From TrEMBL:
Residues 50-130 form the Thiamine pyrophosphate enzyme N-terminal TPP-binding domain. The gene is iolD. One of its GO terms (cellular component) is acetolactate synthase complex. GO terms for molecular function: 3D-(3,5/4)-trihydroxycyclohexane-1,2-dione hydrolase activity; acetolactate synthase activity; flavin adenine dinucleotide binding; magnesium ion binding; thiamine pyrophosphate binding. This is 3D-(3,5/4)-trihydroxycyclohexane-1,2-dione acylhydrolase (Decyclizing). Belongs to the TPP enzyme family. It comes from Microvirga aerilata. Keywords: Hydrolase, Thiamine pyrophosphate.
Length: 615
């Protein structure tokens, strides 16, 4: 057996360069690069190793470990999970900064390889700088925090352990059902230790997506349920996009006279103007999609986790006899709420399901209702997004301005606060992957870093990041990284002077405005933050506009800029789209001295009666 002597870190770097994927007939590196912030736990080992392969595996320097991991996660999502990135940090805070991003990847079923440094395997210098010590368990380190938010976790304490660890890691990262973050904690002394690795370990491998075909019995049972439906409805989740099933989904809906509602992850699965597309479904859904979902007797859930925002906390589907057909590559998701499972890849599953259905079509009366609801919602939505001269525009009016100045291939990126709900209802996605929302973990601070990852995945597309002032203050450092790397973003920063979304929720549940908007917080001086000046200090082009008209002009200019642009606009924290949508289960206190809370509790108890529990 031919071998080569390398350090464990060098073996990792060389192995990663050998992993390939094929996209649209082109063989590409599976790993688009490695994000690295070096410290004493990885600079000598992984740092030296990455330098040696920098011509084949680029290393990118970030400004925040959580931010760079968000960028890596967004890169994978924008690449339909066909490509991914790795991230390496030192031990201690560098490592634990990535835990939140690992949770984002875990919830959203996205691949990212995390390579944090770890303690000394030989324990001779213990405790080392930044080492967490357990009084009762000598094997624990800070990296144990990654265990609940990793699909696969391993701690490498001997150089030869990296061989099975990387092989297992790759199987998880590329598996459509088990896909998610992998953490390999690298003991810092082991990174530098040498071993005679077999040359076969570094052989080039091209990873192709596994397309699981449906079981014949499950397929027949699912088809029988749908054929008996009078009011069937499709919910399209992120799995449609990961599978590349958009065209097949549209053809399926056309052939069988069905309508489609989209989750946050599934939005852009079909163009907004496709006759079958009713837009967002659930808590932040359109009136059209929710009208059909409420009346549906069969829900065909394609590639979705069916989280509470999609199901209205399991109170959206009103038909007491409704059935769910769960078409999902992961059996765990396919079986939720006693669904008829159809475990399969979304594209293949829809193709075979359509064949099994034959010439069956939904009743004409149901099809007519879908068309009417779509037309009605289109008129309603336009009222919310039309231009305005208001001193403080709403989020929807800002979205309208961004939409009017955008092109069909643009990508809008967002993550948390009030914007996801407004974008879910109002953004008109025209092309696949044109809507990039992190709403599985709803992670504030993802937006700018995520936008950078999206741009790195496809530099040809214009990337527009929409972010609130609260999220911007939480994490903005990768704006500087975007300038440094030459990846131009347009960032629209909506300043409502606080956490406007949660303030509205607080008041809706009977609470008094408290500790959300800056004016209602405990302060000595009410801050007046100059976001444009801050963004400019990070190297971006920045401006503050005073109206929707000025915003549209600034957006047009940003498209011609030579670097990232931040456009700041003040918005109203109290206004949101009050049509469409659905109840969401947010528990209201049973006991309170405040009458508003008591009234909200009564409404809450009434709403709970609509939840379908245990079926």
């Amino acid at each position: 057996m031919s071998t080569t002597r390398l350090t464990m870190a060098q073996a990792i770097a060389r192995f990663l360069t050998a992993q390939k994927t094929e996209v649209d007939g082109e063989v590409l590196p599976l790993f688009g690069g490695v994000w690295a912030i070096f410290g004493h736990g990885n600079v000598a080992g992984m740092g030296e190793a990455l330098h040696g392969v920098r011509d084949r595996l680029p290393t990118f320097r970030a400004h925040n470990e959580q931010g760079m991991a968000h960028a890596a996660v967004a890169f994978a999502k924008a690449s339909r999970r066909r490509r991914m990135m790795a991230c390496t940090t030192s031990i201690g805070p560098g490592a634990t900064n990535m835990v939140t991003a690992a949770a984002v990847a875990h919830v959203n079923r996205l691949p990212v390889l995390l390579l944090p440094g770890d303690v000394f395997a030989n324990r001779r210098p213990d405790p080392v700088l930044q080492q967490i010590e357990s009084f009762s368990d000598g094997t624990v380190s800070a990296n144990d925090c990654f265990k609940p938010v990793s699909r696969y976790f391993d701690r490498i304490s001997r150089p030869e352990q990296i061989i099975p660890a990387l092989q297992r890691a790759m199987n998880v990262l590329t598996d459509p059902a088990d896909c998610g973050p992998v953490t390999l904690a690298l003991c810092q002394d082991t990174q530098a230790e040498a071993y005679d690795y077999p040359e076969s370990f570094f052989a080039e491998k091209i990873w192709s997506p596994r397309r699981i075909r449906p079981d014949e019995t499950e397929l027949a049972e699912a088809a029988a349920i749908i054929c008996n439906a009078k009011k069937p409805f499709i919910i399209a989740g992120g799995g449609v996009l990961y599978s590349g099933a958009e065209k097949v989904l549209a053809e399926f809906a056309e052939k069988h006279g069905l309508f489609i509602g989209e989750t946050q992850a599934g939005k852009s699965s079909v163009p907004h103007d496709h006759p079958a597309c009713l837009g967002a479904v659930g808590v932040t859904g359109t009136g059209a999609a929710n009208a059909l979902a409420e009346n549906a007797d069969v829900v065909i859930a394609v590639g979705t986790r069916l989280q509470d925002f999609t199901t209205g906390s399991w109170a959206l589907f009103k038909d007491p006899n409704r059935r769910i057909v769960g078409l999902n590559v992961q059996a765990f998701d396919a079986a939720k709420h006693s669904a008829q499972t159809l475990v399969a890849d979304a594209r293949v599953g829809l193709e075979e399901l359509s064949h099994a259905l034959g010439s069956w079509k939904a009743p004409d009366t149901w099809t007519a209702k879908g068309r009417d609801e779509k037309a009605r919602w289109s008129e309603t939505a336009d009222r919310y997004t039309d231009p305005t001269n208001a001193e403080l525009p709403s989020d929807a009016q800002v979205i309208g301005a961004v939409q009017r100045t955008s092109s069909l291939t643009d990508v809008v990126v967002c993550a948390a606060g009030g914007l996801p709900g407004e974008l879910h209802k109002h953004w008109k996605a025209s092309t696949a992957l044109g809507y990039h929302m992190e709403y599985g973990y709803s992670c504030m601070g993802y937006e700018i870093a995520g936008g950078l990852g999206v741009k790195m995945a496809d530099p040809s597309r214009e990337v527009i990041v929409m972010v609130g002032d609260g999220s911007y203050l939480m994490m903005n450092s990768e704006l500087a990284t975007s300038v440094m790397l030459g990846h131009r973003l347009t960032v629209v920063l909506l300043d409502n002077r606080g956490y406007g979304c949660i303030n509205r929720l607080q008041r809706a549940t009977g609470g008094e405005s408290f500790n959300n908007l800056l004016q209602h917080t405990n302060h000595v001086t009410l801050p007046d933050i100059d976001f444009a000046a801050h963004a400019a200090s990070l190297g971006a082009q920045a401006t503050k506009v005073k109206s929707i008209a000025e915003l549209e002009d600034a957006l047009k200019q940003a498209r011609q800029a030579d670097r990232s642009t931040v456009i700041v606009i003040d918005t109203d924290p109290l206004i949101s789209t009050d049509e469409g949508g659905h109840w969401w289960d947010v528990a209201v206190p049973e006991v309170s001295v405040r009458e508003q809370v008591k009234a909200a509790r009564k409404d809450y108890e009434t709403a709970l009666a609509a939840q379908r529990v245990g079926d």
